[in-house]
User: Fold these one by one.
Assistant:
Number 1:
Amino acid sequence: MSDTKHWQFKHDVATDAKWTPGLREIFEYRDLGIKDGTKGDYVAHLVRHNGKKIKDEVQQWHVHDCTFQFVYVMNGWATFEYEGEGVRTIKKGDCINQRPGIRHREIACSEDFEVLEIVAPANFKTRVVEGPETKQAAE
């Protein structure tokens, strides 16, 4: 991680929140100002379901090229399958430290699904990959 002396104080005001499209077509995102405040070292955003019912790349096996990924479920639920960890349903109040490079895929989520996600670096890439070759990865 870079030197934090260049970071800035940020105050993201809820009444000024802007929800925008992002990585997933079924979600909308609210940037919390951390990306700008940390000069791209981290991103913190709220992610919520937008009501669309379409499949996307994240329902395929994929990885995120990042060094840190924290997910806290604020509302609803989602079921994911993680390499070496099996199928997990995360619900309101649950938290995940998703280790870097773990292959995973989303199986389903509720229409009220909403999470706080913190990732480093802010401009991480997501790549579709082959699924793991285990009994847990059976389709």
Number 2:
Amino acid sequence: MKLTLPKLNRSPKKNRPAPIKADIVLLVHGSALLHVEQPNLVAQHDESLLAPSAAELAAAARRLLPNTDQQTRIALALPNSEFIATHLNLPAGIGEQNLRSAVSLQQPTLLPGLNGPLLLAVQPPTEPDAPTIVLWLPVARAEELFQAFAKENLFLTALLPRALLAVSNEQTDCQVWDEDEQGITYFEWSQHTIKRWLQFSKTDYEIPEFKTQLDEALRDGNEAQSTRVWKAGQGDWDTIPMPSANVYHYAFAPPSALMHMAQQKRLKQRRQMSIAAVVLVAGVLAGIAGAVFYQNQLEQQLSELKSNTRSVSDLQSSVVAMEDDVAPVVNFPKPSLPEILGKLNTSIPKDSWITAFRIDAGVIELEGYSPNPSKLLETLSSEPMFTGVTFNQQIRTESGRTENRFGIRLVLPAVDIATYWQTYFPVED
């Protein structure tokens, strides 16, 4: 039996962000659970003869993923028969959020036999007058699967029809035929949106009248070329990559999964706020510690400055005391004492020297030795600085010496000795 698939028009690619993303994708086909991207990982279900239960799927997933924890997000591709597809003709230009609201309002009319709450997945059509394809999944089934996986410590993030996994990242337009033991699903994928979705049982397809009508319906498509993907059995799913990100627009998130992700987000925000608070407190404490350390440094520097100031004050006091001690010499009336000593040093020849020097009230008395004291007296008398140069002692000869001992008296002219004496040597009453 050969089925002719319609050919679709290609149109420019339109990217849409995926609302849900999974780290691992598991696929259910018949009685087996397969790991997408790792076809050698296949876990058989338990002893179910019909559709596997949620607990059986979760147990098989745990056997397939023995080291996976709740931090890993898992998407489960269920048989297409678990989903319901409806076709709507809605006005063009309806936004995605408004579209979901409009479709939800029509649920009682579209699915009158289903009274329980349903999850829906829908995307706006990409072509004018094109039908809007809506996929539905009972909330009870989604929650049942989530809780079963949670008991196995696995995080079930998303549920989606198995046929959508046949769409690869590179495919913009394609036609997919997926069949298993129970039924057949055919859909057209165009510009990252489901354009047509047909689902029927194998027993119906074996009826000649039904097959003829189906073939005619499939030929109603456009004649342009498009990629055709056939999945006729479990072996055709052994080598499939991770699904296209755009496929997740038709994925269903169990309400508990959304609550879990919201809690994780709040916990992450709290951790971030806690870390920020710790960093802030640490920064404040570091600032306080730095301020205390800086204050201690300033106090230490101030103490050192005070100590240095005391040292400088002590030195200044010592200098003042020294200045007071030498002031009578430094401030001796003109001619100054250094000038007098300098003049005596230049006037007394090298073969003569002074052994005693006394100055009092402008009168200088010298004692010393010279080979010729009379000549020394003449030399000093010729100096303008000195007047009244006379011997005040008799010249004496000492045994063992060739020089004679002398005593000379000199008078300093114009010396204000009274003021000098009153300043440095006041007479106490």
Number 3:
Amino acid sequence: MSETCVYAGSFDPPTNGHAWMIAQGAALFPRLIVAVGVNPDKKPAYALELRLKWLREMTKGLGNVEVAHFGKLYLVDYASQIGARFILRGIRNEGDFAYEQTMRHVNEDLRPGVTTVFLMPPREHGEVSSSLVRGLIGVEGWRDVVSRYVPACVLADLVVTHGKA
């Protein structure tokens, strides 16, 4: 296994918090794979190809970052398959901590050679999630509000998809 790290999520849509995590991961690891996980039990709001497009646009200036996706695999199995020794996860709050702690232990049970690394984003990204962003879209003035929480490439497509309102 190499010094490769995987940062995975649904990125439905990607937020500025995701962008911060990607930048930090790119600075910490020689190779960072940003991977869109496909959960068959969830119906995403945005198509996989659009989410991959957004991530490619967000990472185009980062030479050590690759964008990929994986389907019906545990993240730790995907990491192992691509030779990654590390999984990068963000912790925004106590709820994230409890969930991520459990997942870290399960991942260690499944693949002891893969280490989970946790980062805590700065305050301005700490309470923002993809589901929060989705919930803000549609009401009058949403574009100005959402523009604070997502990268410009994401906002541009959201405006095309949902209208300027």
Number 4:
Amino acid sequence: MRETTLAAATGAPLFIQVYNEDQEASRAELRRGLTARVPHIAPKFLYDALGSRLFDAITELPEYYPTRTEAAILDAHAEAIAAAIGGVGSVGSLVDLGAASCAKGLRLIRLLRPQRYVAVDISVEFLRAGLTQVQREHPQLQVTGVGLDFSAALNLPPACVQGRAAYFYAGSSIGNFTPADAVPFLAGVRAQAKAGGLLIGVDLVKAEELLVPAYDDALGVTAAFNLNLLLHLNRLLGSDFAVRDWRHVALFNREHSRIEMHLEARRTLTLHWDGGERKFAQGERLHTENSYKYSIDRFDALLRDAGFASTKCWTDSNRWFAVFWASG
């Protein structure tokens, strides 16, 4: 279903739902993951309504440094970043990928003063409050929310992006892609950005004592975020996961330079769903998310493999996190 309230006529955001979940395709994907030799679930399934709110809470935790560190970089290097992008007023469209509450997008709107702001997330319903706030603060800005699963394909409605475009992908969400999958995704952004470019946040490799607590906090919010996946799967698949039978596990895989999140069976059990089942031994894990960590040089090379000819990079004083502008 496509919702087309005219922003220009009403002074309200325009909402376009491009992605409509194919429930049978989702169930088939989940069954394949659960019956694979190494059971796994794509991280997009972490983000139901409750999962999205839990992730927002994670970004406020003292252990979770990426959000505040990225924000500090954008604030500390605001003038240099704006100049690299082309200066205030040089951007026709600011396209915020995985916009969530739009809080990060607001920072760039204030910095770049684009003509239009396009917030992209898997569902416009989660964008509504954030986009309303954006429109309230910037009543003359053309504001559009697009419901799109861009992890599959970045196919934005052509009318959404006009003029020179700056794409923004914050929070090191690129880390959810394997490096091999990141290259075609980044190449797709480059193809759409044309004369513009991509501003992207990247988490850098650092000591495990800093990395692991960011994904296994003392309050257990990340554990709740991961365990909530089981309730989402029960609704989607008709499975009989019991949250008490599983525990959250986060670890750093040094060989692959990535944080891994898993759910580990507390006891031997058999999981059932309509038409299938899987036995889990005590201690067996269901792999739910990866978050790859990069060196500056390695990520710069990834951008160039994707076809970007020019890159600039800014970091915090600890070199925990980096923000890249890639163009050309």
